Amino acid sequence: MIQEITNQLNHQLVTLDELRGLQRTINNLIQLKEPIMRVGMKCEVDSPRVAGMIGEIIKVNQVKCKVKFDGGTFNVPKTMIQPVFE
User: What CATH number has the domain spanning 42-83?
Assistant: First the structure.
């Protein structure tokens, strides 16, 4: 699929403004697919240790977040965190 899009862009005359617009659109789609983790955000963690509990993100690192629950604070990979919208 990526190769097809690349070939189409190479064969058509595309202006720099059109490419920048395409880049903004792609960046927006990426942000929709990958939620941004922020301090203070409520979340659930996919782990039996804290099943059904809602925690609060207190620190965001590159790969993991520190999440505070009633029972303590855990360093959790971002892939295990699901934001909770109340």
Answer: 2.30.30
How many angstroms separate the Cα of 10 from the Cα of each of 13, 14, 64? Answer: 8, 8, 39
- Tokens representing 69 are 């629950």
- pLDDT higher than 70, residue 86: no
* Statement: the pTM of the whole predicted model exceeds 0.85: no
Yes or no: say if 40 and 57 are a contact pair by the CB < 8 Å rule.
Answer: yes
Residue type, position 73, single letter: T
The mean predicted confidence, pLDDT, of the chain is 87
What are the sequence ranges of the domains in the chain? 2-33, 42-83
